[in-house]
């Protein structure tokens, strides 16, 4: 069977299940469980003979039941009807108590396909293919396609864990990670940054045996607190030949912000979750559920704040080795907010070389109303002088119009930025902006110019918005409508944050 026919087969089944009320997210979960079991079964047979051991069914305390059936593909695929549904549900619960990657894949797992006939269809479809013989690029393409569809399904809310792949690939093309180096993402979602970095390293280097072993088992380290998203990340990585089916999980289920675990990395690539406040849900004395701001009191942070984005930025700085590099997607408020925001910006410029900021357009994220930027910086040893000398800005927002469906952002749209970023030598850059060319998108500001600005603001634009002056060349109506919605959403988010602050202070 050809690659495209396998992909279309998987999609057709997704649509059949959708009619039964099984969304892409639920379908993706079940595919993950079943694919994992089938691939493990293949590895236990010739020519692999890996000897993976699967437990017998367990009781509610997590203890194996004597003389019960084994939780593996052979047993599952031999069942039919109500017996299949019952065994599948017990298998999922039993495997969720296992250690390592196996346990992480099946954490909080549930059977969402209640019709045994439909479940059997999915099992039979997976059973017909030899997945371990299939190229990692094909398996990866199938799974990435499912992740994309899931992100597009606005009801599922999965879009918040999915960073546009064109943006991720652009970021990686600028950073150009090297073999035998470690890469962290403290909010790794479905693993987009890891996979783009993996592809870059494999395609741009002739890896020897040691380097191949390192990239498979030691390069990537992440955190993801949402069990379903973490499961998808692990499966996504495994299908791309990263990690071992019986190995330890390299994705930590804990909140990365709670503490510094002492680990230091060569690269941190991240798009922390949008939403300004860190909060925890509590039940008050009246029995009502309410949210309470959560501030992380860490010795390694410059500022204690409930602003989640500022906390992630401080945590990422901590995670870097001396001379480690970071590229982080952050919302506009990080660039202009006073108080803790101003202090964090000052300290970042002082202790690291914050050399580049890419201003992103609206309409590229699945969460509307997001105005974001990519901050690129390099960690440095302690010094009396500030390490940041110049910050280079690329304005890819003014007069740029994208929508998720009709005009999505492609990597080719950011080709000019990558070229001007000049990854091979960022000290040899040339501005495209000048007094004579006021439409240049690439402009440098010195450290002294930034420090002199009100609140040390990095929220800088210089291009003229053509829609204000050239009414004959307005974007298409659907793009305009989208941008109006984006701006209203952005404004509403800001008002919500103000209200939360006012309510918090008045209590």
Which descriptors apply to this entry?
single chain, 507 residues, alpha/beta, nine-stranded mixed sheet, two-stranded antiparallel ribbon, 13% strand
Explain what you see.
- This protein is an alpha/beta fold.
- 41% of the residues lie in helices and 13% in strands.
- The protein is built from 17 helices and eleven strands.
- The strands form two sheets. Strands 3-2-1-4-7-9-8-10-11 form a nine-stranded mixed sheet, with helices on both faces. It has a two-stranded antiparallel ribbon with strand order 5-6.
- A hairpin with a 5-residue loop joins strand 5 (279-283) and strand 6.
- Helix 7 (136-152) packs antiparallel against helix 11, helix 8 packs across helix 9 (192-204) and helix 12 (308-319) packs parallel to helix 14.
- The model is unreliable at 279-284 (pLDDT under 50).
């Amino acid at each position: 069977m050809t690659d495209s026919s396998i992909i279309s087969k998987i999609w057709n089944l997704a649509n059949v299940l959708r009619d039964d009320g099984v969304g892409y997210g639920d379908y993706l979960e079940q595919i993950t469980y079943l694919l994992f079991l089938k691939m493990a079964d293949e590895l236990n047979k010739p020519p692999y003979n890996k000897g993976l051991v699967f437990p017998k069914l367990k009781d509610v305390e997590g203890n194996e039941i004597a003389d019960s059936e084994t939780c593996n593909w052979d047993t599952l695929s031999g069942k039919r009807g109500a017996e299949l549904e019952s065994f599948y549900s017990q298998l999922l619960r039993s495997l969720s108590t296992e250690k390592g990657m196996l346990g992480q894949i099946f954490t909080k797992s549930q059977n969402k396909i209640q019709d045994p006939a439909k479940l059997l269809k999915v099992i039979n479809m997976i059973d017909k293919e030899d997945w371990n013989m299939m190229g990692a690029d094909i398996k990866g393409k199938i799974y990435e396609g499912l992740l994309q569809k899931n992100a597009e399904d606005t009801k599922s809310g999965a879009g918040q864990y999915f960073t546009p792949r064109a943006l991720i690939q652009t970021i990686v093309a600028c950073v150009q990670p090297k073999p035998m180096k470690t890469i962290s993402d403290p909010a790794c979602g479905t693993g987009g940054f890891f996979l783009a970095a993996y592809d870059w390293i494999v395609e741009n280097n002739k890896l020897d045996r040691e380097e191949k072993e390192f990239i498979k088992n030691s390069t990537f380290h992440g955190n993801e607190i949402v069990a379903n998203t973490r499961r998808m990340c692990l499966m996504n990585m495994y299908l791309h030949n990263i990690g071992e089916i019986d190995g330890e999980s390299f994705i930590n289920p804990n909140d990365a912000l709670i503490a510094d675990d002492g680990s230091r990395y060569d690269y941190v690539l991240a798009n922390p979750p949008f939403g300004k406040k860190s909060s925890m849900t509590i039940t008050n004395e009246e029995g009502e559920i309410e949210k309470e701001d959560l501030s992380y009191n860490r010795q390694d942070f410059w500022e204690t704040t409930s602003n989640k984005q500022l906390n992630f930025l401080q945590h990422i700085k901590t995670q870097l080795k001396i001379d480690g590099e970071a590229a982080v997607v952050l919302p506009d408020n990080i660039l202009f907010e006073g108080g803790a925001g101003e202090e964090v910006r000052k300290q970042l410029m002082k202790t690291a070389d914050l050399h580049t900021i890419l201003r992103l357009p609206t309409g590229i994220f699945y969460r509307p109303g997001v105005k974001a930027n990519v901050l690129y910086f390099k960690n440095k040893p302690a010094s009396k002088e500030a390490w940041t000398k110049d910050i280079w800005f690329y304005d890819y927002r003014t007069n740029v119009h994208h929508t998720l469906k009709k005009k999505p952002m492609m990597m080719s749209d950011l080709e000019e930025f990558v070229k001007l970023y000049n990854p091979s030598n960022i000290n040899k850059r040339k501005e495209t902006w000048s007094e004579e060319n006021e439409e240049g998108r690439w402009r440098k500001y010195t450290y002294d110019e930034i420090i002199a600005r009100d609140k040390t603001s990095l929220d800088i634009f210089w291009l003229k918005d053509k829609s204000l002056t050239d009414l004959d060349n307005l974007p298409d109506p659907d793009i305009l409508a989208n941008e109006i919605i984006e701006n209203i959403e952005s404004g509403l988010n800001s008002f919500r944050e103000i209200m939360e602050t006012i309510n918090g202070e008045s209590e």
